[in-house]
């Protein structure tokens, strides 16, 4: 548990979140070291997505601290947290459906744009330079995800699997250190899931990423994750290596219910 | 060199086309082929184009449903009229100041109200428009209910054309840049936009104040075209009129806003000869429009050669990918 601070990328201490009388998360503490691939599992309604929302600033924690890259980010606005190096995908895909695939990725590069609004309005040379850089970077990202040939298609018209991939591409374009994937394989068939996992393993190396993954597919989580955290009813009930989690009685109970 | 960028080429091509339009109308006006009625219709078209294009930036592109545009217009009208009437400020400078004051109002109103969305924002902006009107109505300095009259008729075709062109060019340039894309992303999915590093509040306020800037200038031009302004001419019906132009043309499309403004202004002027039937015909046309082209005359995308080219490319792409799979 006590890793040296330099290695810890994300450190959550006692994070809680209530909605009215409902305690969605209580006293959750976890840490992720640089370069790790961590799984986050738990039954429906356990608070996995709520934890993601706290980590990315969709809403602030009711109490507790969240430290990303040695800076406290609890209660910060989502766009600031994104700029500090945490990008996410959504459980229910949130693409800009009426924009092209290319423009979807370009949006994530916006934060790195060097040209100001006024150079764009007056079409000064810097505007063209800046836009060229964004377009080139976005096309390269699409190539990595094999989406380049659909660059000018509307994002909403793509197949489900490709929409999921585009969401990951878009998140990566923001240039994160920590990538949060909320059920990236949901609704995919076994072949697509395997491809996706290979892709995740590959981008992890290529972009030097740390990944936190919510997933329901147990075989998948057990297969790729370094460590796993298990949430149940808003509380962290276990953490450890896949083998430890598989044999943990609390986890089995949470998923299968108590023996009568 | 960068000047040969196809985008730039198209931009300059558009400028040349605009100059031709300008010259032809200028000739028609000076030779007297266009009479005074046509002239004032023409000016009204320009004013409405400015209003519709600027409102489209807020409503159509950024997706923030505002119906207080007449409020910004009246701020611009009053500020510019007072500047030219009481302080002898040169007309163009007065217009620019009017725009800036309206934009400041936009920022002031935008910061508290833009955290609302949908219906709530619409009501808040409606309220703002009415507040401006009531303030004007009760301020002796600006003439109260009778408003200001005897405003110098300084609006010439050249100025009219120039301001309309600037409005269209600057707003189009803004939309077709990473900053405009940020606004579209907010319309498409605000949560995702913010999660991707877009400062949504900032961009909403920018769109709001940029729209207000040009609405203010349009108000100034309108005051100096029609000599008289009074609070009644900037009521919420005026806001709706602008909104109808935008929706008719196609929400989100600048070209659509231009077409909507032209069509509705001409329609309204022509129908003035049939006073009994005017409102019936007007409403009837709108209803028919919305039944047969619910996305507006031009839909949500503008007319642009590049878009057509893209569409063709996408078609080919999808065909080839279909045959591949």
Describe the model.
The complex is a heterodimer of chains A (260) and B (325). Chain A is of the alpha/beta class. Helices cover 38% and strands 24% of the residues of chain A. Chain A has ten helices and ten strands. Chain A has helices spanning 48-55, 78-83, 101-109, 117-121, 125-144, 160-173, 190-206, 218-224, 242-246, 249-256; strands spanning 8-19, 22-33, 37-41, 63-68, 71-72, 86-88, 178-182, 210-214, 227-232, 235-240. In chain A, the strands form two sheets. In chain A, strands 6-7-8-3-9-10 form a six-stranded mixed sheet, with helices on both faces. In chain A, a hairpin with a 2-residue loop joins β4 and β5. In chain A, α3 (101-109) packs across α5 (125-144), α3 (101-109) runs parallel beside α6 (160-173) and α5 (125-144) packs across α6. In chain B, α7 (178-188) packs across α9 (200-223). The N and C termini of chain B lie far apart (41 Å). Chain B has one domain: ABC transporter involved in vitamin B12 uptake, BtuC. Chain B has helices spanning 6-30, 36-61, 69-87, 91-113, 119-137, 157-175, 178-188, 190-195, 200-223, 236-249, 254-271, 278-292, 305-324. Chain B has 325 residues and is mostly helical. The interface between A and B is large, with 45 and 37 residues.
């Amino acid at each position: 548990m006590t890793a040296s601070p330099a290695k810890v990328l994300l450190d959550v201490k006692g994070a809680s979140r209530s909605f009215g009388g409902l305690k969605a998360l209580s006293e959750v503490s976890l840490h992720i070291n640089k370069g790790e691939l961590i799984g986050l599992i738990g039954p429906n309604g356990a608070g996995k997505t709520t934890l993601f929302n706290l980590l990315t600033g969709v809403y602030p924690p009711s109490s507790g601290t969240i430290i990303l890259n040695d800076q406290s980010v609890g209660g910060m606005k989502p766009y600031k947290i994104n700029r500090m190096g945490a990008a996410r995908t959504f459980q229910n895909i949130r693409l800009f459906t009426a924009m092209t695939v290319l423009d979807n990725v370009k949006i994530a590069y916006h934060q790195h744009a060097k040209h100001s609004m006024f150079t764009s309005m007056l079409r000064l040379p810097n505007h063209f330079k800046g836009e060229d850089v964004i377009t080139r970077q976005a096309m390269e990202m699409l190539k990595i995800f094999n989406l380049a040939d659909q660059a000018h298609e509307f994002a909403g018209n793509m197949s489900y699997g490709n929409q999921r991939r585009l969401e990951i591409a878009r998140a990566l374009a923001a240039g994160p250190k920590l990538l949060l994937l909320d059920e990236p394989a949901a609704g995919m068939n076994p072949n697509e899931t395997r491809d996706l996992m290979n892709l995740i393993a590959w981008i992890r190396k290529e972009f030097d990423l740390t990944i936190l993954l919510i997933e329901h597919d147990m075989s998948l989580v057990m297969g790729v994750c370094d460590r796993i955290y298990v949430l149940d009813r808003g509380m962290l009930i276990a953490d450890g290596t896949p083998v430890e989690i598989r044999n943990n009685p609390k986890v089995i109970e949470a998923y299968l219910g108590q023996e009568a | 060199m960068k000047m040969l960028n196809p985008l730039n080429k198209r931009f300059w091509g558009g400028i040349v086309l605009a100059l031709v339009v300008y010259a032809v109308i200028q000739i028609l006006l000076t030779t007297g082929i266009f009479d005074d009625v046509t002239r004032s219709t023409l000016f009204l078209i320009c004013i409405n184009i400015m209003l519709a294009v600027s409102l489209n930036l807020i409503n159509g592109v950024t997706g923030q449903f505002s119906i207080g545009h007449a409020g910004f217009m009246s701020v611009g009208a009053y500020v510019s009229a007072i500047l030219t009437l009481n302080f002898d400020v040169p007309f163009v400078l007065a217009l620019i100041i009017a725009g800036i004051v309206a934009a400041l109002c936009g920022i002031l109103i935008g910061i508290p109200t833009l955290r609302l969305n949908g219906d709530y924002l619409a009501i808040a902006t409606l309220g703002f428009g009415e507040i401006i009107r009531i303030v004007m109505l009760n301020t002796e300095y600006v003439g109260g209910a009778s408003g200001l009259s005897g405003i110098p008729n300084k609006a010439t075709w050249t100025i009219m054309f120039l301001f309309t062109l600037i409005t269209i060019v600057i707003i189009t340039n803004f939309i077709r840049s990473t900053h405009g894309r940020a606004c579209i992303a907010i319309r498409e999915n605000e949560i995702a936009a913010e999660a991707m590093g877009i400062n949504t509040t900032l961009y909403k306020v920018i769109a709001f104040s940029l729209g207000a800037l040009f609405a203010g200038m349009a108000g100034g031009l309108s005051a100096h075209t029609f000599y008289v302004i009074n609070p009644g001419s900037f009521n919420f019906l005026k806001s709706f009129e602008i909104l109808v132009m935008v929706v008719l043309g196609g929400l989100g499309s600048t070209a659509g806003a231009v077409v909507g403004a032209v069509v509705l202004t001409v329609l309204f002027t022509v129908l003035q000869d049939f006073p009994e039937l005017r409102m019936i015909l007007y409403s009837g046309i709108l209803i028919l429009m919305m039944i047969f082209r619910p996305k507006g005359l031009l839909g949500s995308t503008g007319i642009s050669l590049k878009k057509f080219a893209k569409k063709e490319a996408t078609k080919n792409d999808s065909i080839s990918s279909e045959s591949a799979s």
